[in-house]
């Protein structure tokens, strides 16, 4: 063809099936076709990963080129004339389908995938009415992988599952055992590290990977589909609740499973498997409502969790304005302090980096977060950066996370509590080559690097090694996590991060903690440490409004209400009602207090414009993705640009963290009390530590221990995890009910541990 | 047609004929004589001749035509569409239904509901299955769509019962296991066509 001259950023013109298309260079033929509504059948193509090229269904003919071209892999070049459908191509595709159908069990009648199965669809589409190929069949037993079951007999070896697991999730859990017709997908560590996100299952085009829980309980076409979003972490992933009546006896709707737009986006285990946290059996008792209104009137404090929609947050703010109560939110308070300082210092509303920046970078620094557990979706984007751009990942945290060591180039361990010092060290390191204003220059020069590195135990050699990692790299991202928000020096850390963002080549992505903390921070005027009578909205208090169903008045859970949440991408996305709810809602209380509106979602329009909301009505919010795969849900918050004032302070003397230290963190598929209520994700909460920790705390495997954090009593069985390193134990909070949302201290805590029972009793 | 035509009542020649009957007696004596004559001539039996003949045939010659419903029922067409039956596999006795849900989907009255689950033998088990016969219109679509010849129409047309839910559960419709030998294929809607064998294209085998 000889059309090599066209390089990057050039517009090209190609012809597909007689239609002339102008586009920019760099896209594959298939991408261009899809963007222009031209159909090319595929079996192995998955938009969100690099082309797999295992099926050959996508073949096209290009004028002047011999043979058939794989359109999913081949870039479109200027002047190409492409035909997507000829007799030969048709025959080729039909033969491919015949090969896929060899010995494929005739079990569509029971298969979960029936009705939405690519194999079924394409077998019919290419009119395979007769088989001409054959192979000796063999026994391939079904394998149970926990949340997921694998039926090799149904597998068509398209490799999608392996690809997402490696390229998107970064778990490298699945492999292909190649052997021609004997090929099979192997789960390398069936018992272990798999983050149970169900991504492999979601992308499987046939019924080979299915949810063990869902298996054979309903046909796909029986389920009602309700598009919504997951509000468990700040990623706010797109998802669809699929509901049907519970059984013949019980006509009540039930969520059978969660699916997502897997071509373009992903879910983690919490979103995919922790779906049945609804508040059932709520009912209306006017007396109870009256009590709630009364206590609301006299409450001094209104507490809420970070899992509150924007509209409810606004309602609570309105109630507080009316009654004079103070608003508290342990999840979001630290973050809101951070955000305020960040905004003042940078003159911008939000950080500049996005998840796309993360996945496109070639150097990523993850700072102050146990990334895989706190922000699974951010971790996924780091994995994409590693797999696609061979990015170097520097993981800075007091605890090494062995389960993602395949992604991490360098673990940099610092002392708990030394985040401010580490941030200052990073500032020095990342701005070494930058032009900085004099004031900042002198600030950096005055930093006592030796002392900071001594106290945080991040050695200068390590810093130089990190510097070395930047060699010849171009796109840098710094991920800043949750640990700093409840750090006593959060305000100065925020300023240091502003300085890094402004004066280094790093994009900064801030990971807001828990659910809708960003929305809550933007809408509510939060404070902490107030005294007096408290009412809690999904948060432990003297009088509790609870969506878990265990409070003084029932409230709808997040899958039973409409509203919006604000995500890490600074996007406002809608939630929809998946299940009915018969009790009172927050708006009823607000109405009684004279500050409600007719429907909660009337408030979507009223969300504060000065915080960046755009005043769009709920019913005008889009859902879903564009043809090209961009998230078009809702809208993005408005950025504002002004002159910031950056005045950095000296890092303070670091507090010491000797003795028995635990870190509050929840596993990725069970991040909060709501997922603990869901039948699949619920689990026993254990204190997990190393042998070193056990020795230091004088514990052994299986002991029952008691300790206190933030005035909350924890009782836990202690267990040793050999893959963990260091002397800090991991303490989950998901089993603490609504009191989990009141833990407000810094995530590392020095505790007095008391043994109250041992394993051999 | 105009109004004149409509009004024309001339319907042609009338060919009525008077019957040649004896005049009806008008006097009391005349009436008495007629009664006497008719009694003696046993005209009544002439009228009952056929009836009596048939009575004799039925009672003594075994030619009874009355069906003693409900003790006896008329045979119905094998393709009659009444209350559904669920068939079993002749070989194993296991119910044929695989729980594919096609009948549930196709039913135009939306009166079929089923619960399925993953059972201990890794099979799809039909844990419950009902048809709401208050709504079923006996269209036969379910029987036609069933890929397993599992659900078919039976001959049970008496649908009066104390409860709406009667004969609507899986067990009620399923061939009793001890009657398995008597289970018959249904020739109506959805049955295998007589030339089914000719339509099958064999799949090549590697062994
Ligand atoms: S994977 Fe698809 S083709 Fe295979 S049995 Fe299931 S529905 Fe049918
Ligand atoms: S399990 Fe599914 S996704 Fe994986 S290779 Fe087989 S068919 Fe493809
Ligand atoms: S918990 Fe976070 S990452 Fe997981 S599905 Fe929900 S929003 Fe996405
Ligand atoms: S006969 Fe028709 S109406 Fe009755 S259950 Fe079958 S499909 Fe439904
Ligand atoms: S169509 Fe037949 S096999 Fe399928 S569920 Fe209905 S009765 Fe069972
Ligand atoms: S889609 Fe191109 S090879 Fe499968």
Radius of gyration of chain A: 27 Å
Give the distance, in angstroms, between the N- and C-terminal Cα atoms of chain B: 82 Å
What small ligands are held by the chains?
iron/sulfur cluster, FE2/S2 (inorganic) cluster
Number-wise, the strands of chain A total 33
Q: What key attributes describe this structure?
A:
heterodimer, A: 761 residues, alpha/beta, Ubiquitin-like (UB roll), Alpha-Beta Plaits, five-stranded mixed sheet, five-stranded parallel sheet, globular, disordered N terminus, B: 207 residues, alpha+beta, two-stranded antiparallel ribbon, 8 helices, 4 strands, 26% helix, elongated, binds iron/sulfur cluster, binds FE2/S2 (inorganic) cluster
Structure overview:
With 761 residues, chain A is of the alpha/beta class. Chain A is built from 21 helices and 33 strands. Chain A has a five-stranded mixed sheet, with helices on one face. A five-stranded parallel sheet of chain A has the order 15-14-21-22-23. In chain A, helix 4 (160-169) packs across helix 12 and helix 9 packs across helix 17. The longest helix of chain A is centred in the middle third of the chain and has 17 residues, at 330-346. The N and C termini of chain A lie far apart (78 Å). Chain B has helices at 3-7, 28-40, 43-47, 49-60, 102-106, 141-145, 170-173, 196-199; strands at 82-86, 112-118, 124-131, 151-154. In chain B, 16% of the residues are buried. The mean pLDDT of chain B is 88. The chains are: A alpha/beta (761), B alpha+beta (207). The A-B interface holds A 108-110, 114, 129-137, 142, 212, 215-219, 221-222, 247-249 and B 98-102, 104-105, 113-118, 122-125, 128, 130, 147-148, 201, 203-207. The complex binds iron/sulfur cluster (SF4) (5 copies) and FE2/S2 (inorganic) cluster (FES). One iron/sulfur cluster binds next to helix 3 of chain A.
